[in-house]
Design goal:
The complex is a heterodimer of chains A (about 110) and B (about 120). Chain A is mostly beta strands and about 110 residues long. Chain A is about 0% helix and about 55% strand. In chain B, strand 5 and strand 6 form a beta hairpin. Classes of the chains: A mainly beta (about 110), B mainly beta (about 120).
């Protein structure tokens, strides 16, 4: 069974631009969660989607948004990029909803803002 | 505010030896989940072990076991018979909030970097 797939692996953008990251969960998994990992702040929860609906949300500004499609694939969008958005963005999927469930992570997308 | 503290930024262990990683958390909830995740240099996070707070029995997964002290809000990870492949960053995490209320999220500690010496 294929694991969680995140694309692209690396991305370089400039301030003010917007970016879209993609995550394909393990087949049959209906929940997708997103996390931001930085050296300073560590791992922080962004949001969780289940059955195309945002179920839970962390403490991030509205520039961070996401969506989930009917096939459970998810995208995360960050608008008006800032230098502080440079991070590793991790996506995780689980069979059922809720971050208390065992989650399977992807390899992440490394986003660098110039 | 709910927090997770890992007081050991780095630890090292000899191959085949046992090591214990510490984690404490702060919460006012009575029912919650605790996790240990491992992130090797390849950067993919892997679930090591999960503990449900209402279960008094400590969770175990092969060479990995936890010492869950609910009253002390302590959740340490013991790795027995350490192997070179255990070298990684280990993150303790706490699930807080209410799924039905849409406030559920995972809170992570800062991590402990484990080195395994041959």
């Amino acid at each position: 069974k294929a694991g969680v797939t995140q694309t692209p692996r690396y991305l370089i953008k400039t301030r003010g631009q917007q970016v879209t990251l993609s995550c394909s969960p393990i087949s049959g998994h209906r929940s997708v969660s997103w996390y931001q990992q930085t050296p300073g702040q560590g791992l922080q929860f962004l949001f969780e989607y289940f059955s195309e609906t945002q179920r839970n949300k962390g403490n991030f500004p509205g520039r961070f948004s996401g969506r989930q499609f009917s096939n459970s694939r998810s995208e995360m969008n960050v608008s008006t990029l800032e230098l502080g958005d440079s991070a590793l963005y991790l996506c995780a999927s689980s069979l059922v909803g809720g971050v208390g469930q065992p989650q399977h992570f992807g390899d992440g997308t490394r986003l660098s803002i110039l | 505010a709910q927090t997770v503290t890992q007081s050991q930024p780095e630890m090292s262990v000899q191959e085949a030896e046992t090591v214990t990683l510490s984690c404490t958390y702060d919460t006012s909830e009575s029912d919650y989940y605790l996790f240990w995740y491992k992130q090797p240099p390849s950067r993919q996070m892997i679930l090591v072990i999960r503990q449900e707070a209402y279960k008094q029995q400590n969770a175990t997964e092969n060479r990995f076991s936890v010492n869950f002290q609910k009253a002390a809000k302590s959740f340490s990870l013991k790795i027995s018979d350490s192997q070179l492949g255990d070298a990684a960053m280990y993150f303790c995490a706490y699930r807080m909030g209410d799924l039905r209320g849409g406030s559920e999220k995972l809170v992570f500690g800062k991590g402990t970097k484990l080195t395994v010496n041959p």
